[in-house]
Amino acid sequence: MRLFENKKECFGCGACANICPKNAIFMMPDEQGFLYPKINEELCVNCNLCKMSCQIQNENEVKNDGAVKCYGFKNEDIIRMKSSSGGAYTAISDKILFQGGACYGSVFTDSNDVIFQKARTKCERDLFLGSKYVQSDIRNSYFDIGVELKNQERVLFTGTPCQVAGLKQFLKAKKISMEHLITIDLLCHGVPSPKLWKDYIRFLEKKNRGKVMGYSFRDKEHGWSGYHIKVEYDNGLVECDSREDLIFTSLFSMDLILRPTCYKCPYSCKERCGDITIGDYWGIHQVDQDFADEKGISLIIVNNKKGNQVMKDVLDNPLYTWKEYPYNYVSQPNLTYPTLKNLVTDLFWMQYRKKGFLWIVQKYSGYNNSFINRMERSIVFRIHSWRNKRREK
Ligand SMILES: Cc1cc2nc3c(=O)[nH]c(=O)nc-3n(C[C@H](O)[C@H](O)[C@H](O)COP(=O)(O)OP(=O)(O)OC[C@H]3O[C@@H](n4cnc5c(N)ncnc54)[C@H](O)[C@@H]3O)c2cc1C
Ligand code: SF4
Ligand code: SF4
Fold first, then answer.
1. What does the alpha-carbon distance between residue 164 and residue 167 come to, in Å, rounded to a whole number?
2. Residue 246's domain spans which residues?
3. CATH at residue 29
4. Which of 74, 250, 267, 275 is the right S-S partner for 161, CB 3.0 to 4.6 Å?
């Protein structure tokens, strides 16, 4: 049994592992820490369900036709300060929880892995707030959602487009009705390596002699538009944007550490697979002064009738500020094409394998300030920016 010809095609959604009736598929990390399915041939009975649930084999079956509506959105300030953008996610999930539904989203575990979890209360849901720029492990979520939908329960699933596509394909293969399912896909630049993330957390913990208890990729104390990092340790230390803190986002922003599929992502387009898409509404302050602040503005794109009905209920709340805009006010690159692979990505991973985390960090992240390192990094950065700009034209 083979699920793909080339491993680089696999999104690591885990639909195949969730559907296998014999538990013959395990999601195993590769040398970059990304999960891929491994089939235990002795347990496999060739039922073909894994293939039917796989989005590679059933390309584009789960996409919508295109945007129906597009909004700029602000939640209350207290919520926005805890969220990465304008708190659209909290507004939508509040509604689902109020109606007695379950929400699935991503959390940091005690050991700082990023995984999917279910929430039934606001308290549990609040753990999902804030973007974690690491690929999140689906675990058994698709299976659990299938059980809930069969019991006619309302479920809100939020994840990257390939995770939403994985869920929908899984439900299709299991012939489970999606009537009570609402899906939100995130506008997605790509997901960084979980292995590099854990190396980095260990590095921070060693350097600061404490355990990382809280990590924010988008701390807003110093504004929304730059990405600010805040790290809290069990020894009482709280750091913001220190040289060490910036290592991971620096590698992320150079497009060196994404899952290989992200550089060829079929979901970087306007035909979305979620009922609703949410992201940052970059640039909206330039056309509308009502949205000119530094606490974060959400972009909400409604992709189909179901999404439209949900948003009608959500927006009917005087605590929120929102406006509808024409779709052409949106300039997000990942709605048009996938993230460009940095020319040195393969070299980066080869050097990581041979020389280790500290070596590549010193070479590529700007952590080591030696003249040669600064020059090399600046050249790599400029070439990548130039290629990105050329593509925009
Ligand atoms: C890996 C990644 C890449 C992104 N790239 C872009 C981009 O290029 N452009 C853009 O405009 N927006 C991007 N976003 C979305 C943006 O960062 C916000 O998550 C989104 O705007 C929602 O913000 P919010 O204020 O409504 O809610 P928040 O409270 O900030 O959003 C939290 C939601 O995001 C989910 N989430 C957090 N981390 C993950 C994860 N690792 N995997 C799956 N779900 C997760 C949570 O479960 C929750 O549902 C990205 C998000 C992620 C996770
Ligand atoms: S179902 Fe998902 S994890 Fe399994 S092979 Fe297909 S894309 Fe990869
Ligand atoms: S960029 Fe595409 S392949 Fe990568 S995580 Fe996002 S949706 Fe999945």
1. 5
2. 194-257+342-392
3. 3.30.70.20
4. 267
